[in-house]
Amino acid sequence: MFLRIARWVPASGIAFVVLVIVSTFFTGDSPDTDSSDASWISYYADSGNRHQEEISFFLIGLAGLCFLQFLGSVRGALARAEGEPARITTAAIASGAAFITIAISAHVFGTAIAWAVSSSDYVVNPNTARLFSTVSYLLFVMSLFAASAMAIAVATLAFVSPAFPAWIAWFSAIAALAGLFGIVFFPSLVVLAWIVALSAWLFVQAGRPAPAAAPTPA
Predict the structure, then answer these.
(1) Crossing angle of helices 37-45/47-82, nearest 10°?
(2) Region label for 210, one of left (φ > 0), alpha (ψ between -120 and 50) or beta (otherwise)
(3) Where are the domains of the chain?
């Protein structure tokens, strides 16, 4: 039973992306930083909006759990290809851990006011709401820099190791470049697509039988 579950672990990167996309549907109607004070106050006064942000919070938490499982599969594939002392592998995993940590922090800032209003008598200050929204977005941008570092490490190994197909190397390089331009948001979709592709490849690889061991000389 455990082995059957473990077989699906490499696909957790796909689950991560699905959860991230679904979570955006619960926060898409939030005001922009240049919206009026009345818009911010009205938004948080609506319990439906607050509940949607709270649901999104839990979805991102589950997404983070899935990404960490995916990161373990990435680490295994990279370490096998690189061998010890696995410096590039270490850089990739450290970058991936930084990415998900900063990304979750961004979401915490983005939903903090909704939680404060729902759980206490917090009075919304539009300027504070704008500040939290800005910090959330800037943390999101910084998380993509960390994702770029992870993609660079994967690309570095994929270009020199026969264990990876060429398309993984090139897609990783493109994702690394996209992560550097996360300030305009849309390149983040390239990073998510890269995670899906890498996760799918790892899943397929995990389902293939291991090569037979060479016979021991007599």
Answers:
(1) 90
(2) beta
(3) 2-135+196-207
